[in-house]
Design brief:
Ubiquitin-like (UB roll); about 375 residues; about 15% strand; alpha/beta; 3 domains; Fumarate Reductase Iron-sulfur Protein, Chain B, domain 2
Length: about 375
């Protein structure tokens, strides 16, 4: 088996932009990504730290050098792009400036032991895996929230003081976005602990209670559908993109596979929109939404499919806010899954009135 690797290279002292060096590696006795890095380094030296827990990003998933080659091939195939934990903070190849991560430890300095600080530093992967950092560089980071959870469990009498310190930070828990689809190996207890702290602070409000219509209200109604109906319009001349967030809708996934449309895979198709904190932090959610919609548009999608009524409202009714967030018009039409299904079943007349209520009428496509 031969792997095709694109390895990130950059020297902040001499390079204006990073580049990727191609390597074709024949797998013989190598077991882990560390084995491959060591082999490449013998022929063409580059900067990284040669131990198993050294963090890297493989095909946009955060992991470490101890990940097995077998697992990588099973998930991604034989074409792998490998990058440092933060391209923005890269100094030399995979060595990055970690001062932004290290300085956040000062927030809880008065409550931590040497062991606590050591454990915090071991969670570097979780800090840089947060998608929030792509939108707000000064976010306190998930490791400090996890440390706060540990400290409160250990010393409950310090709970109020620790929570107050977190609240006082300018970019705190209201900026957290889920790590679930960011890590190659996700531990669900991470999100459970972070959400426990957010609940303690009274930050979370259910999606059903949120009002996602900032610019205009929405009166679009969604019709029932029968997935046993015959597909009469297979979208064969269309490019369709699908945003699903943290969890894929099996109905949509299976239905899209039945159509003859070109499916455009989005890099941001599974990012968390932080919907439960929209009432507190609308700006972050709007930026995330605009990023998804522009990616779909720039990739040539004719329509962006969503499986949630709340996400439909967020995407369709806030065109002005979305455009302001990214400095560009956001004009891609949005289809809820029920509209996709009924269009495919040739129920166009039933949908025509509702399409006219969309901010961007799908009929223009």
């Amino acid at each position: 088996m031969i792997l095709e690797l694109s390895i990130f290279r950059f020297d902040a002292k001499s390079d204006y932009l990073p580049y990727y060096k191609k390597h074709f590696i024949k797998i013989k006795e190598q077991k882990t990504l560390l084995d491959i890095f060591n082999e490449i380094n013998e022929d063409e030296p580059f900067d990284y730290e040669a131990y198993e827990d050294f963090g890297v990003v493989v095909n946009k998933k955060y992991t470490t050098l101890k990940v097995s080659i077998k697992k990588l091939v099973e998930i991604f195939g034989k074409d792998l792009t490998i990058e440092p934990l933060s391209i923005r903070r890269a100094n030399k190849d995979f060595i990055i400036d970690e001062s932004d991560f290290e300085e956040k430890l000062e927030i809880l300095n008065d409550f931590t032991t040497v062991e606590d600080k050591s454990e915090y530093l071991e969670n570097k992967l979780l800090f840089y895996a947060s998608n929030t950092l792509n939108f707000q560089y000064n976010y306190i980071g998930d490791p400090i929230i996890l440390l706060a959870h540990k400290l409160i469990e250990r010393t409950p009498k310090d709970k109020e003081k620790i929570l107050k310190l977190l609240q006082e930070q300018e970019y705190s828990l209201e900026y957290h976005t889920s790590l679930e689809n960011r890590l190659l190996d996700f531990d669900k207890t991470i999100e459970e602990k972070i959400n426990q702290i957010r609940n303690e602070l009274g930050l979370i409000k259910s999606i059903e209670e949120q009002n996602f219509c900032l610019d205009k209200s929405s009166s679009v109604k969604f019709h029932d559908y029968d997935l046993n109906s015959v597909i009469k319009h297979d979208f064969h001349d269309f490019n369709l993109a699908y945003y699903y967030g943290k969890n894929k809708d099996k109905e949509v996934e299976e239905f899209l596979n039945k159509l003859n449309a070109k499916k455009i895979k989005l890099e941001n198709e599974n990012i968390d929109l932080n919907l439960e904190l929209f009432h507190i932090n609308q700006n972050l959610t709007i930026k995330l939404a605009a990023t998804i919609m522009l990616e779909a548009f720039d990739a040539g999608a004719d329509l962006l499919i969503v499986d949630s009524i709340e996400v439909f409202k967020l995407f369709d009714t806030n065109r002005l806010s979305l455009s302001k967030a990214v400095g560009r018009e956001v004009i891609i039409p949005i289809l809820h899954k029920s509209e996709l299904f009924n269009l495919s079943f040739n129920e166009h007349q039933k949908l025509k009135k509702e399409f006219s209520k969309h901010e961007i009428d799908p009929e223009i496509i």
